[in-house]
Amino acid sequence: MIRHVLQRLLIAVIRFLAVGFAVLVLMEFSFVVMGEAERHVWSPEAYGVVPPELAPRPLTWEGLIQSRAAGTARVLVLVIPSVLLIGYSWGMLGARLRRYHAARLLAAPFAAFACVPGFWFVVLVAIVSFFHWQRPGFANDLVVERGPDLLAWWHAAVVALPAMAGGAAWQIRAVAAVLERETARPWVRGLFVAGANDEEIFYGRAIPRAASSLAALLDRPVAAILGSLVVVESAFRYPGLGSLLVESVRLGSYPGILLASLSLALIVLVATLLRELISPASRE
Q1: Secondary structure of residue 11 in the 3-state scheme
Q2: What's 224's domain CATH number?
Q3: How far is C-alpha 80 from the chain's CA centre?
Q4: How many domains does the chain have?
Q5: pLDDT one-digit tens code per residue, 187-234
Q6: Cα–Cα distance measured from residue 254 to residue 268, given in angstroms and rounded to the nearest whole number
Q7: Distance between CA atoms of 191 and 74, rounded to whole angstroms?
Q8: How many C-beta atoms surround the C-beta of residue 66 within 10 A?
Q9: What is the pTM (predicted TM-score) of this model?
């Protein structure tokens, strides 16, 4: 067990270093080769203090990344459990009612909201925010000085809603597809011939046999969720890692791009590591 954990940790570290190297190469190519910038990414002069456009108050790079990571963490705390809960429960229900194509019907509202209605949801909230606060997004300068910061959690919930919709739609279809493939195997027909009913076969045999494949889906929505947060956080001007990445690219800030990219990659790698540690398939 310890050997397995150390092996997966080593692989995770190698993956993280590879992602960091790829980000540095991409930054060098984008800014120096294509943009003809005078500063190289490995030059100490390319990294300075935090630009005021990235932080409303003076912060170090460490303080900025901690603040932005806390904002994104609030969103992920709301999104990931919701996606897994809805995805697995509704996916199993869709596979159970596979003869009615229930998986597509259950995933359709989430997929639709994640596309056109989700976009208009972002636009409407941005418009209301602009006319109410005279600023777009959540830049309203309201600060909770005492008690729990429910305002921050409300902002995170609004940002999490479009991101959750797309992830839940994908997870429902993926879980249902795994179970539908399992129930289409030849052993199912043998159990029917032996007198077993559909409910016993599905819950007593199909789900346990497909446990390793279902566990392999645990980390799949994370990358898509983070990708959507880059767009949604920027639209709402929500102070998270996704908006930090976009703002840093606009400013040409090397530290902001590097720290935001590595932070997002680290979240994906940690999710992958956890899935590999708990997945039954990883121990076979």
Answers
A1: helix
A2: 1.10.3720.10
A3: 7
A4: 1
A5: 888 887 787 788 888 888 888 888 888 888 888 889 889 988 888 888
A6: 21
A7: 47
A8: 12
A9: 0.81
